[in-house]
Structure formats: C-alpha cells, structure tokens
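Please, structure for the following, as tokens.
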Amino acid sequence: MPNLLSNFEESVIRRIASDLPDIAWRHELLKQVAVAEVVFRTDKDGGGYYVDFLCRKSPPALPEIKGPLELDLAAPDGKNRIFCHLYFDSSRLMHFLEMSSTGEWPADEDVISLV
C-alpha cells in the first residue's frame, strides 16, 4: 500500500490549487494530489517539515509553473506565520512540499486554519 499524503498535506495542496488563476492547472493539481505517494517525510519538530513525493501519472501538457507555488497562513498562536511551498519537477509533476513556521510547528495540525 502506498504511503499517502496526510489529510493536512492534501488540504494544503488543494488550497494552493484553489488559488490558481489557471483553471486547467487547478484541475491538474487535483489529479496529481489524488495519486501522490510520499517517499520521504522529515520529522515534524522545530519550525516545520518537508515531504517528498512521487506522482505516478503522465506529465501534463500545460505551461511550466515558474518557481514554487506558495501559501501563507496565520499560525494558531496569532503571532507567527506558516508558509507552504509546493515545488514541481522538470516534467511539471508535484515533487516536494515544504512547510515552515516563524515559530514552533503546531503539534496538532488540525488547529491550522487554511482560510
């Protein structure tokens, strides 16, 4: 059985997709998140963590996305920020998710609002 994205990780990518102005890329990201398999996840200690994954699907026939896609959120403590960066490989498939906080990473990710 493949190692899947956590509910929080999947929700972050879905939120990033919803913010894209290009509807074709929105749909493509939703297809990719459905088949993403985690190949490595760092420990969730300190200020965040990283997830490497593999998307077993054909590369999309869409224009390349320049740089990572970003999501900036308020941390649950009301003082810090949470940053999520989604990176793509050269074939335009999701490859790496970086999540970090200007403070400590929350022990319970359910308290992070994606609004």
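The first helix runs from residue 7 to 18. The chain is about 20% helix and 30% strand.
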